[in-house]
Amino acid sequence: MSPKVTLLAAAFALVAASALEAQQPVDSTKALYTKTCAMCHGANGTPTAMARASRNFADSTAMASVADSALRETVADGKGRAMPAYKARLTPAQIDALIGYIRTLSHH
Q: Most CB atoms within 10 A, among 24, 35, 52, 79?
């Protein structure tokens, strides 16, 4: 095999591996959202009948006025009796990943 072909094959393998690695965190964060948030906030960010008063993550206008720090605080510390605190169950990195995922829900 020529050096050009070997280099091209190696570059292709690296790009394919990077794409796979980039997809896995999104998939795992979506699974975390589904497990911890979707029951009330809905799979697509629209509140379920169970929690009509919860924040609508799919509403881009409403979400534009909410700072990440406010979302982080709510996820970590909870809100009232309906929204549990997750700071003992999730790492700060998981909370940040959830916030990043929640932000994608208003862009669909």
A: 79
- Residue 61: what residue type? T
Distance of CA 86 to the CA centre of its chain: 15
Domain total for the chain? 1
In a domain, 12, yes or no: no
pLDDT digits (tens, 9 = 90+) for 45-97: 999 887 777 889 999 999 999 999 999 999 999 998 889 999 999 999 999 99
> Is the dihedral angle over the CA atoms 80, 82, 88, 92 positive or is it negative?
negative
